[in-house]
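Operator note (shift B, R.M.): manual run for Thiol-disulfide oxidoreductase DCC family protein requested after the automated queue skipped it. Running by hand, logging everything below so the morning shift can see what happened. Input copied straight from the record, untouched. If output looks odd, do not overwrite the archive copy; leave it for review.
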Amino acid sequence: MKRVLLFDSECIFCNKTVHFILEKDDKKEFDFIALNSQEGKSLLSSFNVSPNVDSFFLISDERIYDRSTAALKVAGTLKGVTKLLTVFLLVPRPIRDIVYSVISKNRHKLALKSSKYCKLPSSEDRKRFYI
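Run finished. Output pasted below as returned.
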C-alpha cells in the first residue's frame, strides 16, 4: 500500500514541502490528500483524529503519524541527505514537536519570504493527489 500524506492545501509552505517530496520520492511511494477535502476529513475520522487538527499527517502501514514524527519518517524515505534527518527520531517527541510547532506557527511567514505562488504538479504527479 502506498503511503498517504495529508497536508494543508491552502498553505504555501505546505505546498512547497509537497513539491520537495515529489522531487525526492523516486519510488513514488506517496499519495497526497488535502486535509480540508472530504477524503482527508474521512481518513482523519477513521483514525479518530479531529478534522480540525492543524498538522501534517503520514498514514503508513495502517498507522497515522503526525507533526515531527510524520515529517521525519517521510524524510527517511526520500533520496539524498534528507535521510539523515531521521537521527532526530532519537530526540524525545515532546521536544521535537516544540520545534515542529514553532515552524508550523511561522509557516506562512516562511513561505512568503520565497514566493507567494505555488508550483503546479506535473500531469503525472497530479495522479497522486486526492483533493
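Quick read of the result: The chain has one domain: 3-130. The beta strands are 3-7, 30-34, 57-60, 63-66, 129-130.
Leaving this for review. - R.M.
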